[in-house]
């Protein structure tokens, strides 16, 4: 039980750190990253709580160094819904998501449409982005990896308020399964296999297809990257730039299975660019569970200082419910 609790705490710490560190380069190309950070990103580049330089004067939000995004906010919403019900129910998740405020603007259609509807029981058939995958860690925390059918159902319940597309549901199920397996101390091969199996069930149930694009992408990216001695940001960006559904979660899961350090994985994802905070969030959650000692303690202190999330209390309560 103590080891499981440590893995859960490590997963949540690394998830939030990945989100906040990765936000510094979200949406940037490799060239854009090197423009703002000639030496690459090595952690929090600046004074915690100050505005990230490229967001100074941003009309939507002046994001701060150390601030987490809607990825962590959504994760906390799902966690609170689980703590309320003892299970994953989409209406309770929806109610918790309606209290979230980050990235609620027309540029993020999934969240914008959900908040305009203002209906916690709303179920959408649309949207294939990774916005559901980045918030399903509490599903993987609640359910052991052997309960794979339940993980697929629960991941769907945590997703359908905002993301109902087949790719989104596949990515969310795969992410929850990978995190659950990591908490259980599974091998890298088992993490990949469980993630692929969950993706296939969720995606094919939604699409009616016999083949899962998410499962295939996880297998392809993992097989390719594991053959390389070192994962370099420029090479990963060239091969699998994370700017669409078939690269974000599959790349993050592959990195989470291959690497042995949450800190290193977060820096890799951050310096790749694209949807860097999402990749760093998911990969961090997996590796924080596999290797809790590899989470950068100073980064996490910064995240708590800036955001006051109280993630460890949430993690402790969730760990007591794991079944």
How would you sum up this structure, described in words?
The chain is mainly alpha-helical and 323 residues long. The chain has a single domain (2-319), classed as ADP-ribosylglycohydrolase fold (Orthogonal Bundle), CATH 1.10.4080. The chain is built from 16 helices and no strands. Helix 1 (2-23) packs parallel to helix 13 (262-272) and helix 1 runs antiparallel to helix 16 (311-319). The chain starts with a helix and ends with a helix. The mean pLDDT is 97.
Strands, helices and their partners?
Blueprint: H1 2-23, H2 30-36, H3 70-85, H4 90-98, H5 109-117, H6 137-142, H7 148-159, H8 166-183, H9 188-207, H10 213-225, H11 233-240, H12 245-258, H13 262-272, H14 276-290, H15 297-307, H16 311-319
Q: What number of domains?
A: 1
Give Rg in angstroms: 17 Å
| CATH topology-level name | ADP-ribosylglycohydrolase fold
Q: State the end-to-end distance.
A: 12 Å
- Helix- and strand-based class? mainly alpha
What proportion of the residues form beta strands (DSSP E)? under 5%
Give the overall silhouette.
Answer: globular
CATH superfamily placement = ADP-ribosylation/Crystallin J1
| Helix percentage | 55-70%
Assembly of the depicted chains: single chain
Number of strands: 0
